[in-house]
Amino acid sequence: MTRLCFVLASFALFAAERPVPPPGVAVSSADRAELQAGLDKLAGALKQPPGKNPLHAADVRIFHDAVKFALDYNEFLKPEEIQRGKDLLAKGQQRASDLAAGKTPWTAQTGLVVRGYVSKIDGSVQPYGLVVPPTWSPNAPGRWRLDAWFHGRSETLTEVNFLHDRMTNRGQFTPEDTIVLHLYGRYCNANKFAGEVDLFEALAAVRQEYKIDPNRITVRGFSMGGAAAWHIAAHHAGLWAAAAPGAGFSETAEFLHVFQRETVQPTWWEKKLWRMYDATEYSLNFFNLPVVAYSGEKDRQIQAARVMEREMAKEGIALTHVIGPATEHRYHPDSKVIIDRKLDAIAARGRDPYPDHIRFTTFTLRYNRMKWLIVDALGEHWERATVDARINGDREIAITTRNVEALSLHFGAGGCRLDVTARARVVIDGAAIEAPAPMSDRSWDVKFRRTNGQWRLASGAASAGLAKKHGLQGPVDDAFMDRFIIVRPTGSPAAPGAAAWVKEEMERAVREWRRHFRGEAIVRNDTEVTDADIASSNLVLWGDPGSNRMLAKIGDRLPVRWTNGSVAVGTKKYDAARHAPVMIYPNPLNPARYVVVNSGFTFREYDYLNNARQVSKLPDWAVLDLSVAPDSRWPGKVVDAGFFGENWEIK
C-alpha cells in the first residue's frame, strides 16, 4: 500500500505538466504490421557486414531507429507521419541494398543529405542533415567552409520529423560554397548536455568524409537554436570563425522573467549552477570570436541580445546587433542579406588559432580552453576565473590570472612564434619563469602550476591524489555527457524505506533519457558489470550498499556514506529510514571515470516546458527526504546539498 500511494502521488504531480513530446495518434493494425515488416527487413539487412566504413551503417540505421522509436513509443504524432515512416523505411532499404553491393552513392551526393553517427554516450545512432553545395565533390580540391545550424524549439521534432524536414527543407541560410550541418541536438534541449556533445560528435563524423577547413567553421541558429548558438559560441569561443545567434535566450533568470513572466527563486546551488550555461557570464570570451547577433524589432526574444550587449559592454566589447525592422519572431529578408555579407567576410578571413592576445573566462573546468591556452585547475569552482595572455615579441608571454591554479600553453606545429634558439620567458601574475624554447617545428607545450602561492614550471604529470579536472569536475549532470551505464540493484536493500523510491526513480531515469535525449540507456544488473565497463564508462549506481554490490564494493571510499542506520555527510547524519543520498564522485575503481549514486539528469518535467530551465538542478551531492514524494521539479525534498572541493573533499 505504501508503494502504491507513493506511485500515485508521483503520477498525480507529473500529470500536471504538459507531456513533452506529446502522445502520438493511433496506428491501425494494418499500418503497424506494414511498418513492423519494414523494420524487420531493414534490421535483417543491418546484420550484414557494414562495409569498409562503420559510418555508412549508421547512415542506414538512422531510418530504422527513427521508425522503431515512433512505433514502439507512440511517437507518430500526426496521421501523415505514418506515411513518412514508410517512406523512411524505403529510403533505408535502398541504402542497405547499395551498401550490400559495396556502393554508397549518398556520400557523393550534393543538395540535401541525411546521415548519422554512433554516439559514445549510449551507443545510439544520432541523425544529422547536410546541405552540400553543388560545387562540392569528393575529389574537389581545397577545404570547405562549414556552418553548423541549431534548430528552433519543436516538441514534435521526433527523428521521423527531423529526417523528413532535412530531406525537404534547405533551411534559412545556404551560403555559397559552404556545407551546412543541421544538428538534431538530441531533440529539444538547446544543445545542452548530450545535445552539446551531439555537435562535436556530428562534426567529427562530417570531418571524416568531407574536407572541412577547421578555421572556417561558424555556429548559427534561431530561436532555441539562437540560444544554442549563444551557448556554444561563448563556451567554445576559440573553435569557431564566427557566431550568428538569432533571438533565443542567453541566460536563465532574466529571460524567464521577461518571456514567462516568472519570478525565479533558485536555491543557492542552483544560482551557482546557472554559471555553467549562462552565456552572459562568459561575455569576455567574445574578445576572441566575431559575433553577429540578430533580433526582430518586435520580438520579445530580443531580450537575449540586449542582455549580451549589456554584459559584453562591461568587457569593452560592442556587440554587432542586426535588428529586423517592425519584425516579430522571424528573420527579416533584408537582415538576412546583411548577416550573410558580414559572415561571408569573416569566414573568408578565417579563424586565427594562434593570436597574440587571449582573454578568457570560465566558472568550470568543463569549459577550460581558449585557443592556445588551457586552464588545468581552478582555485574554486563556480567562482569566476579569468586569464589574460599576451605574446610580447619573440621571447616573452605575459599572463595575468584570477582564481586559476594551473594552466598549459599549447601550440601545434607551426603555431608558436617564439624564438626557437632561446629559452622563453613566461611572466605569470608578475612572477618571471624560464621555460624551454619551442621545438623546431614551432610546436610548444608547457605547463605551469601555482604551489604555495608561487607559479612554477610543472611537469606533464598531474598532481598526486584526486583533483577536479576537465571532464571530471561535476556536477551530477556531467556524467551524462560521456558514456554511462545505469547499474540496477539485485540484492536486499540495507535501507528498505528507500527501495520503492529507488525503483521508481531509476525507471524514470531510463524512460526520460530516451524521451529527452533520444537514446536508449545502457542498463546492467550490478552482477553483470565488467572490468571493461569500469574502464570505459561512468557508472550510475542505483540502490544502497545492501542492494547494489557495486556500491557495497566502493561505499567505504565515498565521502557520503549510507549505512543501515544513517546517511552521513561529514559530521552530519540523516535517518536512513527516510533519506537517500545523490552524488557524483570519481570512481574509486577507476578515478578517471565517475560514479553517480541515485540520479539521472537532474532537470525534470516542469523544466521541459521552457529550454531556459533545462539546467543542472543538483550540485555534486545532495540528501533527499523521501517522505516528500517526487514531483515535476525535484526527486524528493532536498534537505542538504553542496559542492565538493577542488580535491573532491567535503567542504
Which characteristics define this entry?
alpha/beta; 29% helix; disordered N terminus; 7-stranded mixed beta sheet; 14 helices; 6-stranded mixed beta sheet; 651 residues
Q: Which regions are unreliable across 5 or more consecutive residues at pLDDT < 50?
A: 1-15
The end-to-end distance, rounded to whole angstroms, is 40 Å
Rough shape? globular
The largest beta-sheet arranges its strands as 20-19-21-26-25-27-28
As a percent range, the share of helical residues equals: 25-40%
Q: Number of helix segments? A: 14
Explain how this protein is built.
With about 650 residues, the chain is of the alpha/beta class. Among the domains are: about 380-460, no CATH class; about 475-640, no CATH class. The protein has a seven-stranded mixed β-sheet. A six-stranded mixed β-sheet has the order 1-2-4-3-5-6, with helices on both faces. Helix 2 runs antiparallel to helix 3 and helix 4 (about 80-100) packs across helix 5. The longest helix is centred in the N-terminal third of the chain and has 21 residues, at about 80-100. The two termini are about 40 Å apart. Mean pLDDT is about 95; it is low at about 1-15.
